[in-house]
Amino acid sequence: MDSDFPNWLKDQPLVQSLTVELVRPSLEDNAGDMDRLVRALSRPEAPPVTIHPSRMIEFCEKIRTSGFRCRTILGFTGMSCEILDILPVSSEDPVLGFAVDLGTSSLVFRLIDIGKRAIVREIAVRNPQIQYGEDILSRILFARSAQGRKILRTMLVDACSRAMRDCLDLTGLRAENVYALSCAGNTAMTHFFWGVDASNICREPYIPAANNFPVGRAVDLGFDLFPNALLYTFPNVGSYVGGDIVSGILAAGVHRSGSPRMLIDVGTNAEVVLGNAEWLIACAGAAGPALEGGVVARGMQAVAGAIDRVRIDRRTLQPEWRVIGGGKPAGICGSGLIDLIAEMFSAGIVTVQGKFDRSIRNPRLRSTPDGLAYVFALAGETPEGEELAISEIDLGVFLKSKAAMYTILSIIVGKVGLRFEDLEEISVAGTFGNRIDPEMAVRIGMIPDLPREIYRGIGNSSLLGAAMLLMDRTLLDEVNRVRNRITYIELNVDAALMSEFRGALFLPHTNRRLFPSVLCGRDYPAPDGNGK
Amino acid sequence: MDSDFPNWLKDQPLVQSLTVELVRPSLEDNAGDMDRLVRALSRPEAPPVTIHPSRMIEFCEKIRTSGFRCRTILGFTGMSCEILDILPVSSEDPVLGFAVDLGTSSLVFRLIDIGKRAIVREIAVRNPQIQYGEDILSRILFARSAQGRKILRTMLVDACSRAMRDCLDLTGLRAENVYALSCAGNTAMTHFFWGVDASNICREPYIPAANNFPVGRAVDLGFDLFPNALLYTFPNVGSYVGGDIVSGILAAGVHRSGSPRMLIDVGTNAEVVLGNAEWLIACAGAAGPALEGGVVARGMQAVAGAIDRVRIDRRTLQPEWRVIGGGKPAGICGSGLIDLIAEMFSAGIVTVQGKFDRSIRNPRLRSTPDGLAYVFALAGETPEGEELAISEIDLGVFLKSKAAMYTILSIIVGKVGLRFEDLEEISVAGTFGNRIDPEMAVRIGMIPDLPREIYRGIGNSSLLGAAMLLMDRTLLDEVNRVRNRITYIELNVDAALMSEFRGALFLPHTNRRLFPSVLCGRDYPAPDGNGK
Predict the structure, then answer these.
(1) What is the pLDDT of residue A268?
(2) N or C: which end of chain A has fewer CB within 10 A?
(3) Is B358's pLDDT higher than 90?
(4) Contact present, B37 and B89 (Cβ < 8 Å)
(5) Which chain A residue is nearest to residue B208, measuring alpha carbons?
(6) Edge-to-edge strand ranges of the sheet holding B425-430
(7) Are A41 and A81 in contact (CB under 8 A)?
(8) Closest partner residue to B220 among A30, A54, A212, by Cβ?
């Protein structure tokens, strides 16, 4: 699994099991059965213990049949500790929860054994809403009608149900023992999930229907799977900064740091957060698709069959690569692409301008229907017998993405009067956050040239933050504090952007002083071109 | 209507209408639509504003369609102010609530216009559960099975639905505008209402399934009538002191008084509360049926057709009576019965021992199949042509009831070291609380011989308390404080009871010094028998 829980979490899980032996009824103590249980579970320092009205009959019965000894499952609703279930005292059923990342492209589910603080399993599926638009904007348009919203919502909830059921089946665990769903997504996805109108997200003044969502029951959102489960939704900051970012901040610990830290989340969008325990700023920009492998002709997500590591021989220009899950490569993912371009640059195949060096004569560099291209996997090496190549068009698209990323980072740091050197840690999240090699990303000028150890891959930070909430109910308040502390910076209206961006379109940058280690790097070809 | 709301209620209704104009969305203020509404409705001193998850879609839509100006209905759930409805700003719909008295024999519904602090209408129906037992014990036995509980519950909820729908139809008001149901009943009725097992109420150590019930939604209890309504249930103190008594205490204001006060609730049981702002004691005893008119052969409840006032000519022994609603008498209710017996006693028809004076020769006193009886309505005077008479058996039963009542009052006052003279006020509640003539009740020794003005008829106190809760949400806390302050005194296990009881079986009592005004009363026959 991607990541363990940070050690600063409090030991107050959102849902917990509490076994109590009640004082037996007597003439001296006329508390009712249920009142007796509530009394036994109440703690002066904890929120009041409540029961959902629909469970009264069942629970009252269970207290008697259990002989006044029961194992209760208590869930935090934000205002009270609700009795979610009463089990026999002998029950050893686990207390389970799902952390859910509602991504535009993928839905990821992490099944957590809350009692054991352990990740049981993780499962990811394609977001079926893609059939109504790869990009979120098409879906928002589709969901302008109540009918459209209903379709998208049902589709989403059904896909989530199926995936979580599959995950449970694979582990032999039961849906009845799932007591909490903790969900984080971007603003539009959260709207689709709740079925509320998302159309104002992309219409000036860009005001969502809701940033905060109530703690509900899974049934309220149409899940018929988890009769007992509470459902938490991470709040959005606004149309461009969603609950996934809030969750990511929690995961990266940016909000607790004394010194400034940065969180870079490269998903379908690039989202960047900068801040510390006192302030947080966030911005988002369209940097992602190329980085995620979505634009290059043979690009793909970081799943089995994707090339995720590339090295190129300086002399022969032959590539070597690693394939996720082993076997033949079906395509290349974001981290593979970063490696590929960094290595092409280091080997002199690609110039500072991001063009192929046309003086090179090598069978790997040849004309294709898309123009000149570097073939990084031959037809015979792929499962379908089609070669994998990167064209100058692909290169151009990629450079725009990496330039956008660098520009965003540069602007956001400048906005608050800091320099990159002031950053204590940079967490890189996203589907390929863990796979990215900072060395390579620096070499192409995608991220600033800082000591490599300040970069930390944290994987799916949205999912991690959601999972953390399951383990520590005090984060529910923390989430709101973090949310309220975030200032969103609109980059699209910023004039500084374009000049920064133009310089960043080069490899690594027009301003070489920004990348001192790249110029001196072991692999970087000296001007005399020993790698050619 | 029986009673107005006391003037000490705070002006903080359980449900209130609040019209707000929201700050319009702008680039400067990225609060979501719903967050904008919540912000506008929030008050630092009030509980947090919440939305039920199932209403998110509808409410988000309404905020936009209303053009950011809406009339909201806010209901207090005990922990939060929940948005129960969003109406057009032009809406003049009333904010309605029902107070419900869940009585063993009758279900009474008072429709309140909460916004206007006005009682709209009241309606009472027979409790249909009577078919499973007149007395609550038979019903408890019937409800031992889950099946039985379901039958009783469905029957009750259906009868309530029908009655409230009828009440709304009669007034031309709509169920959608009913936002709260405030229900009070005895412990068993509350259990039947919630569908929880009542069988331990009558089994040592007499511990109910629950004394406190959550604030729910009407739908949680099976009402399909009030989509928006919150449902409040008065908590029970224990098996023998139910929410109806707690509600009654509120209505009588016993809990706020500096000096001791008493509340006598004569329903199917006689329930008595004694206390002040610092302490409250309660006891219950089987005194009711006869007093309520349920035991005497032609006894009936205080409804149209019942004799509720009787005077007897000292010379001719001819009765004069008043019939509720006018017309011919179909029977006699509790207050009529008290009058009748007091007058028979005053006229010398009945002796101090509670027997007919067999020396009397009068056509009204004659042999019947039930033995010697006094005919208070001739066959020709009744709608069905059957004479109404009271037999010595009836008299005996009645005397036991009145003796039980006096004994209860006497014991409870003695328990706390007080005398009757220390009482500041005695509220008489119950179906005939308002109709009872203290003068007559004192004359037969049913209630202590105190200045008549300390007696106050407050009608259905359970219903009044329930209605008060609709008008003042701070009572929700008050109710719990009152509930926790009540000490229940078990009379059945008290040895003092029997000796007190024996003396009270006489008219007015063996100890005449307890009833000085009766001995000196204008109507009371002198020993020389001027009324004979």
Answers:
(1) 64
(2) N
(3) yes
(4) no
(5) A32
(6) B455-459, B425-430, B261-266, B270-275, B280-285, B486-488
(7) yes
(8) A54
A123 burial (CB, 10 Å; 0-12 / 13-18 / 19+) is: middle
Question: Is the CB of residue B205 less than 8 Å away from at least one CB of chain A?
Answer: yes
Question: Which three-class secondary structure string do you get for A41-52?
Answer: HCCCCCCCEECC
Distance, CA of A13 to CA of A93 (rounded, Å): 16
8 Å CB contact of A27 and B206: yes
Q: Do A214 and B25 touch (CB under 8 A)?
A: no
User: Which residues, 6 or more positions from B521, have their beta carbon under 8 angstroms from its beta carbon?
Assistant: B346, B443
Residue B269 has pLDDT above 50, yes or no: yes
Question: What is the residue whose two structure tokens read 């014991």?
Answer: B411
For the segment B310-339, the average pLDDT, to the nearest whole number, is 93
**Phi, psi of B298, deg, nearest 5:** -110, 25
Q: How far apart are CA A370 and CA A373, in angstroms?
A: 7
Six-digit token string for A222: 């149409």
Which residue in B368, B375, B346 sits closest to B532, CA to CA? B346
Instruction: Residue A205: list chain B partners with CB under 8 A.
Output: 25-27, 30
Q: Is A222 exposed, middle or buried (0-12, 13-18, 19+ CB in 10 A)?
A: middle
What is the distance between the alpha carbons of residues B269 and B402, in angstroms, rounded to a whole number?
12
Q: Rounded to an integer, what distance in angstroms lies between the CA atom of residue B444 and that of residue B398?
A: 11
Q: Is B64 on the interface with A (CB under 8 A)?
A: yes
Domains and CATH numbers, chain B: 15-88 (3.10.20.880), 96-242 (3.30.420.480), 247-289+398-517 (no CATH), 302-388 (no CATH)
Each residue's pLDDT tens digit, B37-73: 999 999 999 999 999 999 999 999 999 999 999 999 9
Contact residues on chain A for B79, CB-CB shorter than 8 A? 48, 79-80
- pLDDT at residue B432 in the model: 63
> pLDDT digits over B130-154, tens only?
999 988 999 999 999 999 999 999 9
CB contact under 8 A, B207 and A34: no
Cβ separation of B205 and A33 shorter than 8 Å? no
Average pLDDT, chain A: 90
Counting one residue from chain A and one from chain B, the pairs whose CB atoms sit within 8 A come to: 149
- B315-to-B392, B507, B526 alpha-carbon distances in Å: 21, 21, 14
ipTM: 0.89
Find the mean pLDDT for residues A269-279: 91
Convert the pLDDT of each residue in A458-504 to its tens digit: 989 999 999 999 999 999 999 999 999 999 887 764 566 777 888 89
Q: What is the pLDDT of residues B93-125, one digit of tens each?
A: 999 999 999 999 899 999 999 999 999 999 999
The verdict on whether omega for the bond into residue A205 sits within 30 degrees of 0, i.e. cis, is yes
Task: Sheet containing B365-368: give its strands across.
Answer: B365-368, B371-377, B388-391
How close is the nearest chain B Cα to the Cα of A48, in Å? Answer: 10
Q: Which residues of B touch A146 (CB under 8 A)?
A: 61
At A1 the pLDDT is 35
Length of chain A (residues): 532
CA A99, CA A120: separation in Å to the nearest integer? 11
Backbone φ and ψ for B330, nearest 5 degrees, come out as: -95, -15
Peptide bond into A47 cis (omega under 30): no
Extract the tokens encoding A478: 């923390």
Crossing angle of the two packed helices A243-252 and A461-471, in degrees rounded to 10: 70
B250/B234 Cα distance (integer angstroms): 11
Each as own residue / partner, the long-range contacts of residues B168-174 (CB below 8 Å, 24 or more positions apart, any chain) are: B168/B111, B170/B121, B170/B123, B171/B111, B171/B120, B171/B121, B173/B94, B173/B96, B173/B111, B173/B120, B174/B93
Torsions phi, psi for A398 (to 5 deg) = -65, -45
